[in-house]
Every structure is written in structure tokens, then in C-alpha cells.
Amino acid sequence: MPIFQNNLKRFLNNKMNFVLIMLIPLIFISLSFSGSGTQKAKVGIIDRDRTQLTQAIKKAIRNQADIAPIAQKSLRTDLTNNRIDTVLVIPKNFTRSLISGKPIKTESYHVQESNVSSGIRTYISGYLQDLSVMAHAARGNSTQFYKSLQSYQQNHLGLSVSSPDRTGAMRERTVSALGFVIFGLFMIVSVSSRMIMEDKRLKLYTRFFTTPLSVRSYNIQNILSYLTLSAVTIILLLALLVFGFHAALGPSLVNIFLVLLLFSIVSISIGVLISSVARTAGQANALSLLVVTPVAMLGGCFWPIRITPVFMQKIADFMPTTWGMRALTTLVYGNGLKDVMMDLLILAGFAALFFLLGSWRRTDIAS
Amino acid sequence: MIIEVNDLIKRYKDFLAIDHLNLTIGDGELFGLLGPNGAGKTTLVNAILGLTAVDHGTINVFGEALSTSERAIKKQIGLVPQDIAVYPELTAQENVTLFGKLFGLRGEALRKGVADALEFTGLTDIRNKKPSQFSGGMKRRLNIACAIVHKPRLIIMDEPTVGIDPQSRNYILESVKKLNDMHCTVIYISHYMEEVASICTRIAIVDKGRIIAKGTQEELGRLIEDDQVVSVGVTAPDYSIIEKLKRLPAVKDATVDGHTIRIVLSERKLNAVLDTFLEEDLTITKIETNTPTLEDVFLTLTGRALREGAQ
Question: Which terminus of chain A has fewer CB atoms gathered within 10 Å of its CB, N or C?
């Protein structure tokens, strides 16, 4: 595998490659995890019961989130404008129903696509469930219930509160960081097309085929070398995310690795396509720049797609980065590979299409 | 036969790069392929190596068609391309090692092949330096080392001395002769006729995709042995005289080189030539008659100078 080995050597010899696929994502990943740690979800509470218990609920929520004032009439606007992440409506007679052991009903509102409030919603749900358990144990005795509540607040408040919110926020930050990992891997487009074009510029591409090396073997060795580089990059960046930033990467790190590796194959296929279209290394570089940054932006590597205009979200469906990000987000939020099968198939389709287009324009090696 | 080319045709759209070309090269020959730039020499080499698809004709290398045993054939060929095709970021030794591996060498055979190739080209002492630190001549020698690392049976050298100093050129020409002495068949492609004339045992002159003459240097010279080459020195050459000279029935060709006008005569009618000079009122400083060279053969056969393409 001389071409494979040689590519690895050339890659390691060129410091710019490290800057492109390791250093730039590293800087952005660090930014994803810095500063945003104290950011809390904004919760609006409409309290129609106004009892000692509902005050206690508000106090517990305040420990986990920022409570913002809200009116029923502006609820929808506040949610869609991201002024509020979630709204909890406590109905009249809530306290009486709870203590008497009747089923309790609260209303909650949030933007369906948003994950920002997932942590606090999980927390509120758990907190209300705990209250029900305490009410059941008090058998309708409100004094006994409030005694239990006081004890609960003293003993368990610190323990139970931090976990759900931290996980939710950490998942948000992890998805954001993975966007930059995808961006780094997308830079393989530039590295692979540049290295192939360099072979052509130096007339080595032609010279190689005066040896027993076949075009197919050259292509396979090239692809394998870039895939190896991608795999190493993924392992290093994931290790940094896990050990450096304690990122919440979902139940299976292997699944995240596999999705990123499949995305690398798409990047390599685009690199191969660019190197087959470009006439010079300069053209290849320009084309790579034209492709990488816009496709990364449209695909949600730098910010969530949901905050972009609708027409851009439609365009994003044609970007491989979109499907890579979708698969990663789904995995981070606790799902398995079978839940992202469609995303993976679409990514594989992109890779197949670009490889096909890249090998379509084969002419004489000499020309 | 090492190479047999039969009725080869290669077109690039409307341009006929190779035109019904036939060629045979025997084992152990140092064969010169002479022709101006664009004559079709490199296209012929590309066709021999399977780098370009041909439109018609057959090519056999070592008695076999390339399509039937490409890997086995290519293992026995070394190409020194016209361009210096090496990695500037790798050392000389790493470059030669890479090509050794591509030719299938491993272990001790690879180590010895690399050492021998570097030794042969005089690069052993600078084997750990990168080509970016090399002179033009050293780069050309590295280009050769990469082609001989596997000790090929056939070496094709495409303009291996372009753009280097005379000392390096001599070194390379001596190396070519040494390789041929080591029972290696060499195809030496050049538009420098003095190089081809000095080292090649047999020569083919290529023009417009065709072989217009082939043989030993003597055999080629005999093609125009009845011709006479006259060099006339003048103080101020007037280009209009070239046209007048070319109109004379005895003149095959006339060219200006500085203050000298070189004329190829098919008949020994020097008087008519000199009369033309007098009519033009040019002061003659010298008159020399020469034995026809390869350049004269080419001029006579094609009507143009070998270096025209280069200029």
C-alpha cells in the first residue's frame, strides 16, 4: 500500500492539515463549552392556585431555571420568539386535588422542535410526581403533607435538581460541538482534493501509472488513507469531548463514531469529485472553500437549522451536513442506530452519488 | 523484439498525433527518437505504456500486448518523464523508496535497489535532502533514480536533459550509456540532435506523428549523401535572401543562424548561390562546406529545423 503510506506521511508533514481538520474544530468546540454553562432555561409560570405549595414549586423551579413573567395572551408570541423556553400553567384547585390524592393536571407549553427546555421539563415532571407520592403517603392530611414537603426540600432539593437540567444543557452544547466536529471532518474535502491535485500538478499522477499501479488501486489507497486520517481525527476529537468537556454523547459512543465515519466518506467523495472537475490545485482549493463553509452553515454545523428561514431549511435538506447533524442529534438524545437509519442511508446515497460523479469524467491518464 | 508498434493511429479530436506509425526496437539497443516538440514522441511513449488509448494499431512490449499482461510488463519498464515528477516534501531516498515499492520491491531487494539507484545517479551523499534543495541537474538525476530502482529491462527517457547545465548533461548522457552497457534497452527521446547522435546506436526521426526516417546515424546520413551543406558568413544578413535562395532549383533549404546562412544543396551548384549573394549586395565573410549532420537530414526530410517547435 505505498500510496496509502505515502499519503499519511505527506499529511503529517503538512502542518496546515492539522490546522484545518483539528485545530479549527478544537477552537470552536472549546467555545461551545465555554460561557454557556450558566445559561438556564427560561420558564414562565401561570399560577392560578396561589397556595403555599405552588410557591414551593416556583421556588424549586427557580433553583433550576430563570423564571420570566408571562401573561396568558402573550404566551404564544413569547414562546415563538424564544423569550420563554417553556410555560407551566398551574390550574385552580391544584393543591387541593393533589393533597386529596386526586389525579393532578397541569398544562405545559414549549416549542416542539426545541430541546432547550427538555431538561427543566423533565425536572418539573419528576418534581410533581414526587409531590403526588408524598400526598399519597400523607393520606389527605395537609399538615403531614407540608411536613413531608419541608423535609423533601431540605434533604433532596440539592440532589434532585441539578441532574436533569445539566444533562439537557450539556446535550445542547454537545450537539453544538459535534457540529464543529462535522465541520472539521468536512475539511477533508479540501485536504483530499488538494493532495490529489498536487499529484496531478507534480505529474506524479501520470508517472504512477507507468508502474504496475492501477487507477483503481490508486483511488482505493487514497480513499483508505483519508478514511484513516478521518478515523484518527474522530477518535481524538471524541476523546476530547468525553474527557475534556464531559460531553453528553448519548448511550453509545460507537454509534456516534460510526455516523461521523460515514460522514467522512461523504467528505472524501466530494473531495474526489472536486479533484476530477478542477484543472489546477488553485481551482480545487477555491471549489473546496465554496463548498465546505456554505454547506456546513446550511446543514446546521454552526447553529440550529430551526432558527434559519423556512426556505433555507428546505435547501438544507439537500446538504449532507443536515443529515449528519440530524443523526448525531438523535443519537445524543438517547436514541439508537435504528432510529437514524434513514439519515445514514441518505448519507450513503450522497457518498455513492459523489463517487460516481467523480469517476464519471475519466479520460486518458496522460491527458 | 523489445517493442513492436504496428500501424498506430492516435487522434486528439481533429489533430492526428500519431499517423500510421510502425516501429521495432530490439533487445539491448540504445534507440534514439528524434523530433521537434509536438512531433508525437511523448504520445508514442504514452501509448506504449498504456497511458493513452489508441485509435488503431497494435503495440507489443517484450513480445506481449500490454492489455494481456500489463502488470508483468510494467514491472520491467522504467520511465524517466520529461517533467521532474517527484515529491518535493520527501527526501531523495523516500522518493526512490516510494517508486521501489510501486514496482513491487520489498525488504532487502527494496533496500538494495534504492541504494544502487542513488549510487548510480550520484545522490548517495545527499539522499536525506529534499529535492527543493537540489540543483536542476540533481533533480534530473533523482528523476532517473526513481525510474531505475527496480533495475528495469527497458528504460524510456523522455527529454531527460531539458534545462540543465552542460556538466549535468554529460553526467546523464554517460549514465545512459552505462545503463545500456548493463544490458538495458534504452529509448532516448530528445529534440537535441547532438545528444541523440552522440549516444544512440539507432535513430528514428519523427515528424507530424510519422517516422520519416530510421537507421544508424550513417544510414541516415546516406539519405542525403549527395547533398552539400554550405555555411555562408555575411556581415548583415538580410532575410529576403532566404526566400530568393529557396527559389533556386538546387537549394533544398536555407536558414539563418546569426551572421551565418546555412544552405542545403541537392546539386553542387555553389556558383548560383554565390551569384544570389552578389545580386543582393551582401558582403561574404566566409564560406564553408560541411558533411550533412542529423539536423541537415531532418531539415532535408521535413523542411524545418528540429528546434522550431521548442522556440
Answer: C
Q: Low-confidence residues of chain A, pLDDT below 70? A: 35-39, 112-116, 155-168, 360-367
Q: Is B259 found in the same domain as B211?
A: no
B23 and B152 both lie in a single domain: yes
CB of B118 within 8 A of CB of B93? yes
Domains, in order of start, for chain A: 2-35+170-360 (no CATH), 39-165 (3.40.1710.10)
Which chain B residue's Cα is nearest to A201? B85
Kindly report the nearest CA distance between residue B38 and chain A, in angstroms. Answer: 14
Calculate the CA dihedral of residues B254, B256, B262, B267 and round it to 10 degrees.
20
ipTM score: 0.78
Residues paired with residue A56 on neighbouring β-strands, in sequence order: none
- The shortest C-alpha distance from A300 to chain B (Å) reads 37
Distance (Å, whole) CA A365 – CA A205: 8
Show the DSSP H helices in A317-364 as ranges.
320-332, 341-360
Per residue in B66-87, pLDDT (tens digit) is 888 888 899 999 999 988 999 9
Which of B102, B150, B187 to mutate: most A Cβ within 10 Å? Answer: B102
Q: Which residues of A touch B98 (CB under 8 A)?
A: 2, 6
Write the residue in B71, B86, B87 that is nearest to A212 by C-beta.
B71
CB of B94 within 8 A of CB of B58? no
Residues B147 and B10 in one domain: yes
